[in-house]
C-alpha cells in the first residue's frame, strides 16, 4: 500500500518482508511483520516525499481564508533527529485565519444553509399536523352545492331560458337601481345644493292676483258708485266675489244686461285661474316639505336589501366557508384568552402572602438587592409552578397570535399597549413577580 497524492493516509510497511530482495532482522510482531533498524537513505527520501505530499494535500484542503504553517524539510536522519520543534504538534497543524471578512462570509452562508435545512425539516414534520383542505372540511357544501349548480346550469341552457333569465334579471336590477338608488340620491343632492324645484310660476300667480283685483275694483266703481271708497278698496284687495255672484244671478233674468253678465263671467274665470295658481303653489310647498322624506323612503328598500346581502355574505364567509373570523368572534376569542389568564393568576395567588402598598414599600426598602425584583418582593407563595408557567406562556402566545393575525381589527395604540403588557407578563423585560 504505497501512499499517493489521492491517498495520503495509506499504510507504509517499513522494514517488512514485502521486498524479497531485502533481508532485515528484527523482532517478530506475530502478524507477519518484522520491524528492524532502517539505515537506508532511499527509505528516508521516500518518507520525506510522503510527508511533503501529505502536507500539500492538507494545505490544498485548507479553506481560502486560513493557512497552515509550512513544514520543515528533512535532509537526513541526523538532521531530523537534531531538529527538535519548540511548539507542540497541535500548534504545528493548527490553521491560522488570514482573512476574517471572508471567514465571516463563509460562516454566514453555512448558517443560511442550516437555517433552510431546519426550515425544511420543520415544514416536513409539521405537514402531518396541517389541517385538511377546504374541500374536505366543507364536504357537505360541495356535495349539495355542486349538483344543484350543475342542474341549474343545465336547465337554464335549454331552449334559451338562460339568456332570457339573464336579460330579465339584468333589466330588473337596472330598474331597481334607478328607482331606489340613482334617482332618489340625485334628487336629495339637488335639493341640498340647488333647492327644491317649483311646478308653478309664482310671478304669474302674482300677476293673476293683481289683474283680478283691478277687475273687481273697476266693476265696483261702475256698478256701485255710491259705495264707500274704503269698502271698495277692501273688497277689491280681498277679491270678494259675493256682490258679483249676486249681481250675475239678477242679471240673468233679463236679456238687456248680457254685456254685464259676460263681464262678470270673465271676472269669475280670472278668480278660478287665481285659485288654480294658489293650488299649484300649495302643491309646490307640500312637495318641498315632503320631497326629502319621499326620497329617503325610496332609498330605504335598497338600504335593507344591501344590509341583508351583507349579512348573508358574512354568514357564508365566516360560518359556512370558514374564511377567517368576524370582528365579534375575534374580540370574543381575545376576551376569552384574557379571562383564562386572569383565572390562572387568581387561582394560583396566595392570599396569605398579600401585602398592602405601605407594607410592600417598607419590605422593599428593607430587603436586600438579591431579594428585590422588578415588581416588588419575591414571595414563594406567589411564584407560579412550572406547569402553571407553561400554561401562562401558552395563553400569552395565543393572545399574541390573535393580536398580530387580526391586527386590522385593533388600533395601533391598542396593539402597542397589549404587546407591552404581554412582554411584561412573559418576563421579556425583566423579572416580574
Describe this structure in words.
The structure is a single chain. The protein has 433 residues and is mainly alpha-helical. Among the domains are: 55 residues, no CATH class; 119 residues, no CATH class; 100 residues, no CATH class. Helix content is 66%, strand content 1%. It has a two-stranded antiparallel sheet. α8 runs antiparallel to α9, α8 packs antiparallel against α11 and α14 runs antiparallel to α15. The radius of gyration is 54 Å and the shape is elongated. The N terminus is likely disordered.
Strand order of the largest sheet: 1-2
Helix/strand order, N-terminal first: HEHHEHHHHHHHHHHHH
Strand content: under 5%
Could you describe the largest sheet, including whether it forms a barrel? 2 strands, antiparallel
Give the end-to-end Cα distance, rounded to a whole number of Å: 71 Å
Shape: elongated
Round the Cα radius of gyration to an integer and report it. 54 Å
Low-confidence blocks of residues: 1-39, 74-84, 351-365, 367-380
- What is the number of helical segments per DSSP (H or I, 4+ residues)? 15
| Alpha-beta content class | mainly alpha
What's the total number of strands? 2
Average pLDDT, to the nearest integer?
A: 76
In helices, the fraction of residues equals 55-70%
